[in-house]
Design a protein that fits this description.
A five-stranded mixed beta sheet has the order 5-4-3-8-9. A two-stranded antiparallel sheet has the order 1-2. It has a two-stranded antiparallel sheet with strand order 6-7. By secondary structure, the chain is an alpha/beta fold. It is built from five helices and nine strands, in the order βββααβαβαββββα.
């Protein structure tokens, strides 16, 4: 995991519409970069919908929201349409972004070990420096958790 005060690793990937998005596109704005395991799963849907429901307020505070998972552009498109998500979901099928942010890790579940996404949110300041790291994400109240920091 990256720590507060660390420059955020730059990346370029595509969103749910195939549009290329780079972290450098958002210099001068605060970025909420949230990593989640999978589209259309209960916890991930709850987290995305909480961010959706608070999106206008976050925009008014100067934040941009970007979600990242290993899902495809097509999966992200279906997810954003089904849940009316107003922010980009970035596709990272080769796990390059997740690896650079330290969220692609060995996980354990019922005695089984596997590689997966550790749900994490980074708040990045206007200069591209990590301002906050949230590792104990409350999916139902994530926007409040971010804004209370």
């Amino acid at each position: 995991m990256l720590e507060k005060g660390t420059p955020a690793p730059v990346f370029t990937t595509s969103d749910q519409n195939g549009k290329k998005i780079s972290l450098s596109d958002f210099i001068g704005k605060k970025v909420i970069l949230y990593f989640y395991p999978k589209d259309n799963t209960p916890g991930c849907t709850q987290e995305a919908c909480n961010l959706r429901d608070n999106y206008e307020y976050m925009l008014s505070k100067g934040y941009v929201v970007l979600g990242v998972s290993p899902d495809s552009e097509a999966s992200h498109k279906k997810f954003t349409e089904k849940q009316s998500l107003p922010f980009p979901l970035l596709s990272d099928p080769d796990k390059a972004i997740m690896t650079s942010y330290g969220v692609w890790q060995l996980k354990k579940l019922y005695g089984r070990e596997y590689m997966g996404v550790v749900r994490t949110t980074y708040v990045i300041d206007e200069k591209g420096v990590i301002e906050e790291v949230i590792t104990k994400v409350k999916t139902a109240a994530h926007a409040e958790q971010i804004l209370d920091k």
